[in-house]
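2024-03-11 09:14:02 INFO queue: dequeued item Plastocyanin/azurin family copper-binding protein, len=146
2024-03-11 09:14:02 INFO validating residues
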Amino acid sequence: MRRVIRTPLTVALASLAAAGAAAGAVAAVAGATTTARPQKKSVSVNDNFYGPAKLTITKGSTVTWKWPADVGDSHDVKLTKKPSGAKFTFKSPDTGKKVTKGTFQSPPFASGPAKFVVTGFNKPGRYHLICTFHETEMQMDITVKK
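2024-03-11 09:14:37 INFO prediction written
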């Protein structure tokens, strides 16, 4: 029969090991329930392309499309596909006041500096956007993570 000798050192080490395991379990549970913070991301509106063309963000994020001083042709940003029930807040191109709607389209700009800011993106999923002047070559996708 094997006899276990308990010294103050072995008791202390056993206690530390148990505390470390418990702390790790609590951290894992806490990490599983925390949500990512909303982000602020920028997209450049260039001559016939958005940069980047693919963007991944967290729920509640804000995206700002920016036109440089000389972009060449006129370009805009129009939402064409979204998850059901998605709503967005932005300044109305007509009134300049903040509005919340189920879709959005920026005014066209040929030069800047100009910007169009959209907040919301509260529904996880894929959002597809186009420039209405260059629909085939100027597209982008935004993926909102849960």
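2024-03-11 09:14:37 INFO annotate: The CA atoms of residues 130 and 139 lie 4 Å apart.
2024-03-11 09:14:38 INFO item closed
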